Amino acid sequence: MAHALRLAARGLGNTWPNPAVGCVIVKHGLITGRGWTQPGGRPHAEVRALEQARTQAEGATAYVTLEPCAHHGHTPPCAEALIKARVARVVTALTDPDQRVSGKGHAMLRAAGIAVTEGVLTAEATSLNAGFLKRVTKGLPFVTLKLAASLDGRTATATGESRWITGPEARRKVHALRMSHDAVMVGSGTALADDPDLTIRDMGAQRQPVRIVLDRLLKHSPASRLGRTARETPVWLVHGLQAPEDARKAWETTGATLIETPEINGHLDLTAALQALAAKGLTRILSEGGSTIAAALVKARLVDELAMFSGGVLIGADGHPALGSLALAALGDAPRPRLLASQALGVDTFGSWLL
Question: What residues act catalytically?
Answer without folding.
Answer: 46
